[in-house]
Amino acid sequence: MNLTISGHHLELTPAIREYVQGKLERIKRHFDHVIDIAVILTVDNLPEKEKRQRAEINLRVRGKDLHAESIADNLYAAIDTLIDKLDRQVIKYKTKQQDHQHDAIKRLPDASDAVTP
């Protein structure tokens, strides 16, 4: 699994990097077949007095790319919301994969249904 964390208009400190990696452990616990993760942390300087913190993630798994984005006043809150959104997407993807695999098994003919000569 390749992990890329980048910051736009933001200096990535080791604390932020460790925080993101720690939160991504939750995703790996649910689903460990992740190919690539790209995290982009951004600080938007708006003309008003406030600063808006944005966190985006692109997660590549086999056959699908998952994307989530979160905006908050605090960067850590944006990361928490982002991981919650991504966690729901990963669980949904995983259940779809499991359901698809079980459907194929259900359609196989039973040995008791087979005609014996």
From TrEMBL:
It comes from Herminiimonas contaminans. Keywords: Translation regulation. InterPro entries: HPF/YfiA_ribosome-assoc (IPR050574), RHF-like (IPR036567), RHF/RaiA (IPR003489). It comes from the Bacteria. Associates exclusively with 100S ribosomes, which are dimers of 70S ribosomes. This is Ribosome hibernation promoting factor. Pfam families: Ribosomal_S30AE. Residues 96-110 have a biased composition (Basic and acidic residues). Residues 96-117 are annotated as: Disordered.
